[in-house]
Amino acid sequence: MARLTQPQEQDLDPLLGKLEDLSNSPLRAIAAELLPLLKLAQTSHRSRDLSSDKLQTLVNYVAYLLRRLPRIFSARFGFDAALIAAIVEDSGPTAGFSSMLVPRYEREWGHESLMMPAEGGKSHVIDLILIPGQDQVRDIDLLSYPWLGHELAHNLLFRHDTTFRASVSREMEKEVQRLKLSGMADRGPAQAKANRIVENFVQFWTPTPDHKNWSHELAADLVALWIFGPAYLACFEDVLDNPSLNPYQLTQSHPAYVVRADALLEGARLLEWHDHVTSLRNRIDGWLHSKWRQSRTNRFRALASPDMIAECVGTTISMCQELGLTKCTPTAVDAISRNFCLTSSQNFGISLLLEAYLVFRQHGEQGYVGWRSAVIPEVADRLKL
User: Which residue among 114, 120, 131, 168 is the one 20 to 30 A from 335 at the CA level?
Assistant: First the structure.
């Protein structure tokens, strides 16, 4: 019976067929890595140099990779893939983004890294940029696309994380010591409560490799602000329009929205976007008197450390400078504002998304919808999609 669970020659054929199909798609570079590896494994298995168990492990993993990769490559996929590549290029040649950035359509924005198997331990990483909607051109909403800056920031931080993690960890240790000292006189239930706050503080703020922590999420917001300036602030505020959003809610993977808002306010101050934060500042003030105010407990205030927020902001801005990321400036935005029209656009990459922001800001929803209807087909035609 054991042999029934071992990989058979015919079991590999469908997988090899899928990889052959991938060779004729925009993801041909991925197929070029995986096809020779799987064929070599097949040959090694036939000559008994590779055990059936190891072959099965490889087959299962390649099948998993193919399930996570896009299968349909419509005009929207081409548009988004080209746009991501243009944003990376616009961000500067020394930034160090991944060379395999692939759009995939999901319910929410996100980033997912897939490690490709490789002979000799030298493997490439596929970075999926998860974008809301379907693989259809009509689902493109350029007003939301500055979120690409946030997801690309995760890619950047995965590749250039050492300095950020070290700096934030040092500040976190200082904050932990401060919390411990403030609770030294507590006894009984009060001491247990103080200990839980310290545990939560470490849990939430520690910059872990998987990025499911407050420090990395704030850093991703700040990188997006660096790249897209007020266009990212507008995206962030769109999320805050959700009436069911509790700005003080504590979760592991993302900071409370008021923490993110405070970080963006500080980042905007340092990056000279003072004139674009009035609405965000008013929201923060309004939350203090909202139905959510009861969530702003002493525990929350202890966890939402202003010093940790400031450290994440300062460290991220320093990282952007060191990596040579192109910074969005008021001068650059003003130049686009003076030159756009409502019937066409010669921009792409970062400039196109800034233009979309400016069109909506100056001409409202109706003006933006008309501009989008004219510009998306025009850009797609330039890209020959």
Answer: 131
Q: Which amino acid does the sequence have at 149? A: G
Q: Does this model's pTM top 0.85?
A: yes
Residue with tokens 């319910």: 107
Q: What whole-number distance in Å separates Cα of residue 88 and Cα of residue 98?
A: 9
How is 41-56 classified by DSSP, letter by letter? HHHHHHTTSS-HHHHH
Token reading at 13: 């054929």
Does residue 215 contact residue 207 with C-beta atoms inside 8 Å?
yes
Q: Note the pLDDT tens digit of each residue in 18-46.
A: 999 999 999 999 999 999 999 998 899 88
Question: Buried b / exposed e across 144-166, counting CB within 10 Å, b at 16+?
Answer: bbbbbbbbbbbbbbbeebeebbe
Tokens matching residue 191 = 């001491």
- Amino acid, single-letter form, for residue 138: R
Match 């196109």 to its residue by tokens: 352
Q: Say how many residues make up the chain.
A: 385
Distance, in Å, from the CA atom of 208 to the CA atom of 157, rounded to the nearest integer, reads: 11
Q: What is the DSSP letter of 325?
A: P
End-to-end CA distance of the chain: 52
